[in-house]
Amino acid sequence: MELIVNGQRRSLEADPQMPLLWALRDLLGLTGTKYGCGIAQCGACTVHVDGMAVRACQIRLADVTGEVTTIEGLGTPDAPHPVQTAWIGEQVAQCGYCQSGQIMQAAALLSLNGDPTDEDIDRAMSGNLCRCATYPRIRAAIRAAALRMGGV
Amino acid sequence: MSRAGRIARRGFLIGSVAVAGGVAFGAWRYTRPLPDPFAGTDAGALNPYVLIDADGVTLVAPRADKGQGARWLQAALIAEELDIDPATARIIPGPVSAAYYNRALIADFMPFAPTDTGWLAETARGAADIPARLLSWQMTGGSSSTADGFDKLREAGAVARETLKQAAATRHGLSRADLNTADGAVILPDGTRIPYADLAVEAARLEPVTDIVLRDRSQWRWLGQPMQRADVVAKSTGTQVYGIDLVLPEMLHATVRMAPWGGTVARLDPVAAEGMPGVLRVLPITGGVAVLARDTWSAMRAAAALDVAFTTPDTAGDQDAIWAALEATHDAGAIDTRRRDDGDVDAAIAPGDFAAEYRVPFLAHAPLEPMNATVLVTDDACTIWAGTQVPDFAVARAAALTGLPQTAIRLENQMIGGSFGRRLEIDFIAQAVEIAMAVPGRPVKLTWSREEDFAHDQPRPAQIARVRGRVTADGVQALDLTVASPSVIASWFGRVSSAPPGGDVSITTGAWDQPFAIPHFRVTGLRAPETVPVSSWRSVGASSNGFFFGTALDEMFATAGIDPMEGLLRLCDHAPSRAVLEAVRDLSGWTGRAGGQGRGRGVAFCLSFGVPCAQVVEVEDTPQGIRLTQAFAVADVGIVLDPVNAEAQLSGGMLFGLGHAMNCELTYRGHAPDQTNFHAYEGMRMHQTPAVQVRLLENGPLRGLGEPGVPPAAAALGNAIFAATGQRLRQMPFSRAVRFA
């Protein structure tokens, strides 16, 4: 079957029942998307499908009809997305394992809502678990990214 | 392939570890030379922490990084004296070697309170390098990496710097004293710049220069300044490779399904699972079953569908029986340790005085990166790629399992996606070795499911504390705290090595050692039977004793009408601890328990790992439930070496403590927890996170901050809920009794 991932058409031989998460990690070598719980309770596997944040552990390959963007496609160390720039600036990461998912969720939020309130941030981000509890810096980074993306 | 792997095939060996390491501590009283971790590898090692070759400078950071920033801080300590921007150096965890033993951790095993700086205590701590070397622990734990590395890593950098200067001086017929260093180069008097890499071959022929003087902190360029951790960019772009992300040629994937604790496989029919797509093999291993497959998902799907039955042991594995065993331990009253017995509590406390019982539950570590290890076994070698806090123990276990000598076992420590103590265990590494032995020549990556992680975590033990005390309008006159708990130290050592004799002081750590001048003050640890395996959970004994102690004091203050902040300050007889309390009072604008408009405030203090930490939590009682509005934390680490990260550790530690106090517990049934995934073990989430302010002080000795933010949090929250609602919470998690918004 074929997938469009990070702007590239990728063909792979896989069970159509396989969750997108494992196809990305084990078959396509895109390990920036993380496995944390497998039941959509932690958000570590968050990717974009046609720009919407989805949990890659919950969507089967057979059901992926849109273009997939992973953390690797959002930006790179040399050319980071504004949300990644904000994450770096605030030094959000501790262990960092959840941060791919946090960043993808935040990028999706900001693409829909350029000036989120605290309540908007709570609603969008509460499904993304950070065991190190970096939440205050995640909140600060989202605010910083909103300013940056708004061109202020 | 890692840097260490490439080093093994090139270059030259410089200096001897015994000499370079010897100077790191000034006077050795123990003369057997330490092994050179890079011996036989042709490494360009100036000492065990600095490698220089034609490609540049590599700094060795042997303490594992689980997210606490240890790898970066270790590199910065070396780089500060080496005169190189740590961001331009390669940083590697290095090989497993006794050269990297942890002196600070062993020092904390000595039976002296961390505030005791008397002659006997200091002498005993100073002597701790001898048993540490004999045990040769390369362990990461006990918030010890900073204290352990502060002198020896800077000295390693200084020895390397001076030796490079000597090489340049010899080459140009100059005196070393006339040379300078900056940005990874030796600077000659005429301004000529010689990069360190150009001097490595000549430095190799020199005895390391050891007459060094460490720089005063006023001269520091990086330490103490806001720095950007080297891993922050990778962790913000999905390019950080954790152990679970490793990809090796020809690699197979595996997962396990293990029997409940203490159980075995009673029956296994592998046929159906082996017929599932992608599955290669179903393999019995010690205590369970492994599934080998072409990808992780196929392995996990087959493991979940496996036709297997397990036995369970005939011991107390249900939660009611576990609580009953703890109560019985109290009733029996057999003392395990009693490190504090001031005055005469029995005479001072009268019938009718304060008495209360407190309970804390089992808690899972549940770091977000599930347990994993990749192993390649061949006829004469075994290579392990895994994140571990105890590489020595992992190597020893792999040697025992494979029958290979320890010298044939190579372990490449990986960046770790959280631990909270979980990676002090080596169960997942041992399993991966067993699986890899079945497919020699093929690397195997073992990845646990989250369900396996909850089922086979070795949790923080459930405990019951009984407290008696006497309080008057003048303050707390007597406190008698008794804690019943299984022994974390015996349980853990028994698994990874062998259990030590003697009492387990960790049962009362965070209580017996508190800097409070209570006239009649007794703390007793009782050892309960081990019902499920238990282990160190971020801040270990202090994680629960901070709650028992901080809540009991607050209750007694309330009884006597004493403001809790004033009450703590009146009791505290340790200057750095008093300063921490005063600072949190000022930072929070403390005016008492009552906040007005349904708000209440609680304060708690705990000195753990030598770090005094005080916290104030404010809650609001809303129609939707208890809402955490603000949280303040102040701690004293002696010297704030990495301020951006120190703030993160203190904030994160406090929020970690708050989240678990709110809603986390493991309850056991048949030796397995009822909680199977994060839906039943929420912890702190964004919408429940209060506004946080932290402050760091520098009055005490140099200490690390990975754990000390945790212990006061639960008591501060419980005390705040009491202030807001009048409801006293004596059992965690608090969600058993109150609803959180």
Automatic annotation (TrEMBL), chain A:
GO molecular function: 2 iron, 2 sulfur cluster binding; metal ion binding; oxidoreductase activity
InterPro entries reported for this sequence: 2Fe-2S-bd, 2Fe-2S-bd_dom_sf, 2Fe-2S_ferredoxin-like_sf, 2Fe-2S_ferredoxin-type, 2Fe2S_fd_BS, Beta-grasp_dom_sf, Diverse_Oxidoreductases
SUPFAM superfamilies given in the database record: 2Fe-2S ferredoxin-like, CO dehydrogenase ISP C-domain like
Keywords from the UniProt entry: 2Fe-2S, Iron, Iron-sulfur, Metal-binding, Oxidoreductase
Family matches, as CDD domains: fer2
Sequence ranges assigned to domain 2Fe-2S ferredoxin-type in this UniProt record: 1-74
Protein name: (2Fe-2S)-binding protein
From TrEMBL, chain B:
Signal peptide from the UniProt entry: none
Domain Aldehyde oxidase/xanthine dehydrogenase a/b hammerhead as annotated: residue spans: 237-314
Bilayer-spanning residue ranges: 12-30
Keyword vocabulary terms for this entry: Membrane, Transmembrane, Transmembrane helix
Entry keyword annotation includes Repeat: no
Pfam families listed in its UniProt record: MoCoBD_1, MoCoBD_2
Ranges in a coiled coil: none
GO MF: oxidoreductase activity
SMART domains, sorted: Ald_Xan_dh_C
Name of the protein in question: Xanthine dehydrogenase family protein molybdopterin-binding subunit
Species the sequence originates in: Paracoccus hibiscisoli
